[in-house]
């Protein structure tokens, strides 16, 4: 897990128990946002155990604070939503190139 993600997680507690089939089960604890954060932590643990953690990513658009699950076939996704995040990044890069061309007199 990246340092950025770890820094965002507060100290959380998750309960572990053995169910009637003998399987260890993680259960969220707390209420409100702490319960939601516990659920996210449990999902991260399960993703790590099933080698799906590599598909949990943070959007590379600096204006998008979202994490997402990369569903691309080759695990190459870098943005949460190409239509929104990708378009915004590409538009900013295009405008920066145009400004640079205008400034250099081309």
Strand content: 15-25%
Describe the global form: elongated
Radius of gyration, taken over Cα atoms and rounded to an integer in Å: 20 Å
Q: How many individual β-strands? A: 4
Side by side, the strands of the main sheet go 1-2
Low-confidence stretches: none
Q: Main beta sheet, described?
A: 2 strands, antiparallel
Kindly, what is the distance between the CA atoms of the first and last residues, rounded to a whole number of angstroms? 45 Å
N-to-C SSE series? HEEHEEH
Approximate helicity band: 40-55%
**Number of DSSP helices?**
3
Would you tell me the overall average pLDDT? 81
Which class do the helix and strand fractions yield? alpha+beta
Task: List descriptors.
single chain; 106 residues; alpha+beta; two-stranded antiparallel sheet; 3 helices
Topology:
Blueprint: H1 3-8, E1 14-18, E2 24-28, H2 33-49, E3 56-58, E4 67-69, H3 82-104
Task: Explain the overall architecture.
With 106 residues, the chain is α+β, with helices and mostly antiparallel strands. It has helices at 3-8, 33-49, 82-104; strands at 14-18, 24-28, 56-58, 67-69. The strands form two sheets. A two-stranded antiparallel ribbon has the order 1-2. The protein has a two-stranded antiparallel sheet with strand order 3-4.
């Amino acid at each position: 897990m990246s340092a950025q993600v770890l820094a965002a997680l507060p100290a959380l507690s998750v309960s572990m128990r053995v169910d009637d089939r003998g399987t260890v089960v993680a259960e969220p604890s707390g209420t409100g946002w702490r319960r939601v954060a516990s659920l996210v932590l449990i999902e991260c643990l399960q993703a790590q155990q099933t080698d799906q953690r590599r598909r949990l990513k943070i959007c590379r658009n600096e204006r998008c604070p979202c994490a997402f699950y990369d569903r691309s076939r080759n695990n190459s996704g870098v943005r949460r939503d190409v239509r929104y995040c990708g378009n915004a990044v590409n538009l900013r890069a295009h405008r920066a190139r145009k400004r640079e061309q205008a400034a250099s007199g081309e």
